[in-house]
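Incident log, structure service

09:12 report received: a user says their structure output differs between two submissions of the same chain.
09:20 pulled the input from the user's history:
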Amino acid sequence: MSAEAIGALLAPLNAVPGVVGSMVCGEQGKVLAAAFPASLDPGTPARAARVLADHGGGLAAIGGAVSAFTLRFAGGRLLVRPVGPAHLVVLCTPTANPQPVALLAAATAPRLERLVALPPRPTAAAPAPAPRAPGRLWQLVQRIEAVIARKRLDPFRTRGAISMAAGVGLRAIDEDTPDDPGLQAKLEAAAKAVLGEAP
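09:34 re-ran on a clean worker, output below:
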C-alpha cells in the first residue's frame, strides 16, 4: 500500500464540484493519504482521523453495519465511508450536491479496500533442520589429515599411499559420505600402516 496509489484514487473524488478535499485514515488514526487545499489547517485531518479511530467503530454497535454516513455543519459537509479497516473521508462545501459524491465514493471504495487491506500475517517459518553430524568416514579422514600435518609429511604422497592401500581416494570422502564399517576398517588399517600410528 502506498500513499501515491491511494492519492491517485482520491483524485477523481476531489475533482467533483463542491469537494474541498479527501483523505483515507487507518484504524489507529493514522492518515494514510490526504489531498486538501493548503488553506486547511494541516492538523485538522489528523485530528479527524483520531476521532474516527476512537469512535467510528461504535456506530456499528449502535445501528448495525455502516456503509456510509454524513455529518453536516455550518461550514460544510463530511462524507465518511468505511473501506475495510480504514475510512474514506470527503469534505464538501455546504452547497455541494451529495449524490454524485456518494456515488463516486461508493465506486472508489472497493479499490481503496484492496489497497488498505491488512497484509497477511507472516506464517511462522518452519524450524530449520538440525545440521547433520559428519559421518565417521569423514571424521576419520580429518584425523588422518591432522596426523599428516602434525608429522609434516608430504600430503600428496601420503594421501596417495593411504588411498592405494585402502582402495578409496581420501578426496572422494566428504561430510555426506554414508558410513561404511568395512571401508572404515580398511582405511584405518591403511592409515596406520602408512602413518606409523592409528589416526
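09:41 both user submissions now match this output. Likely a transient worker issue. Closing.
09:42 reviewer note: The chain has six helices and five strands. The beta strands are 19-25, 31-35, 69-73, 76-83, 86-92.
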